[in-house]
Amino acid sequence: MKKKALFLQILLAASLLFTTAAYAAEISSTRDIAIGSSGQMEMIGTIEPNILSVTMPTFVPFSISNSIPSQNKVVSPRIHMKNNSYVPVEINVVYTDVNISKLQNTQWSDTGNVGPNQIAIGLKKGTAADKMPEDLSQAHWLKANRPQNLNVLNLDANETGALYVVGTLGQNVSENAAFNVTPTFVVRNASQN
What is the pTM of this model? Predict the structure, then answer.
């Protein structure tokens, strides 16, 4: 009888041991683990992407002339931008360094409206037709030598988009000199705004 009771106690202890191990493996369960013993816990993590990657050119030449018959007096190549990130991004211009010192008696216009001695340059979203914009509607005008927060393009994850340089100039602005316009682009995670 004592052997039978001892056998049942060992069997009961063994079954409790395996039951406890199975209980610890459940994800939604909680229990205290005594000091000196062991248990299992499943942890589930989420990785938040923190690297934003956008491909864009570093140099874009353009020409501007009053002889162009359309409202937009600039000829520029299409500026392709590709979001290589897994999240949507917004592309903003935060500062534009403008040097028009070689254009004698010329002033910069921040609005796209120019007088006889003014010049204005902006960016406009490219269309699906791959055609240089002829009008200046919906152009984003660059402000000379001061901070700005100008959203020029939004791209979904792994999407490609395009911009064009657009602009206009007054009739007294010389067309025989070069000038530099250098916008500083900042890429931001659009899903956090």
Answer: 0.73
